[in-house]
Amino acid sequence: MATRRPAKSKTPATKLFVLDTNVLMHDPTSLFRFEEHDIFVPMMTLEELDSNKKGMSEVARNARQASRTLDEIVQSCPEGIEAGISLLGPSSELASGRLFLQTEAINVQLPAALPTAKGDNQILAVVMHLFEKFDRKRPVILVSKDINMRIKARALGLEAQDYFNDKVLEDTDLLYTGTKEIDAAFWEANGKDMESWKQESRTYYKIKGPDTADLLINEFVFQDGEQPLQAWVKEKAGKVVTLETLIDFSHQKNNVWGITARNREQNFALNLLMNPEIDFVTLLGQAGTGKTLLTLAASLTQVLETKRYSEIIMTRVTVPVGEDIGFLPGTEEEKMAPWMGALEDNLDVLNGTTGEGGEWGRAATRDLIRSRIKIKSLNFMRGRTFINKFLIIDEAQNLTPKQMKTLITRAGPGTKVVCLGNIAQIDTPYLTEGSSGLTYVVDRFKGWPHSGHITLQRGERSRLADHAAEVL
Predict the structure, then answer these.
(1) Helix locations, 386-457, DSSP H
(2) 391 and 423 within one domain
(3) Residue 79 clears pLDDT 70, i.e. is over it
(4) What is the pLDDT of residues 235-290, one digit of tens each?
(5) Are residues 298 and 328 in the same domain?
(6) What is the CA 190 to chain-centroid distance, rounded?
(7) Residue 280 forms beta bridges with which residues?
(8) What span, in angstroms and rounded, lies between the C-alpha atoms of 254 and 251?
(9) Is the same domain home to 372 and 223?
(10) Closest to 120 in 3D by CA, of 156, 149, 100
(11) Widest pairwise Cα distance in the chain
């Protein structure tokens, strides 16, 4: 009996991705993000880009940028576009696929429930045409940020995907927390040739072992039990790391503007906020974990007492939780005042810790504090440089990665930037936990010697707020 020769495995055909307009308006560089696969841009996508290009919003800017990018790609191929345009040159070898533009009228009979007057349905008709044209020999996939569009495509038997390229993490549970718990087994595995010494009331441990390679600079390690330890990684060279013990901000003698750390993570946060070598701090945590209070206490101490910074600048995105209340009267600072309720609430707490000065003393302190805090709108940040300032970006989870870059690059010499936020409370439309600017900077800055991050775990606001955060 003759044995059959195994069939040669065919190399999988490159996929053809059909781009919805919202993908290009979300990320104009998406044209170069599909590696060896081909891209198809329907005429309706170009039409919608054209109708969305007017205005000063980020969507309009992205639409204009996408149109310019498409123009450059088309100009790079003077011989004609019917056979597709190679993306190798225009993308600087980031992508090796081809770009196809719709060059023919496509007449596909859609179900009666899908009126062809709607742009989305015309794009679906193009996807259906391509699906039938290639007759399953080549995967045709619609890429859209619109959930309903993807559901409709799947209902028609077409393949559809979200655009994932800009997502930092699929699962935000994997986001860097800034802390790592160690135990006796850690010391057994990594502490064989340990060196330790004291310097300026701090203890240092130099250790090497299999578990140290995963530690990052400025990551906090802690051990509970009979021999408690709280330290952070100050140096790292391969598998050799140097740990430094922390200042104990939970003790009253080390209070910061009358505030002491109520839990371990708050102590870690204050070590980051009070250290002049750390230029960039990110604090994540649910409502009531003390993000704003700790940051304001640290900033006031370093502006008014130690004179390390000249003033505090506070900003946040003005995204309403409910319906917008319309235009607000007054100067830039007065317009921002309703958004800065968190600042006023925390200043009331901090002003109550400044000692017994009576009503007059407290009023004078409040005026002094307010004179050193400037409230700025995000809209006027382009082109500014902050020198020797303590910049606080509140509600940073509502920023896009591009807005976050714009803000952080305002920092001049001697400026410290602190980002506060809770990625479970995103109010900006189209932003998710995975694509928020706050998630983006936490992931990108981890391990840099002049930045630190802490995810605050325990709420310290009230038993009511803690229970509401858990059960609601």
Answers:
(1) 401-408, 437-445
(2) yes
(3) yes
(4) 998 889 999 999 999 999 999 988 999 999 999 999 999 999 999 999 999 888 88
(5) yes
(6) 34
(7) 417, 451
(8) 6
(9) no
(10) 149
(11) 105
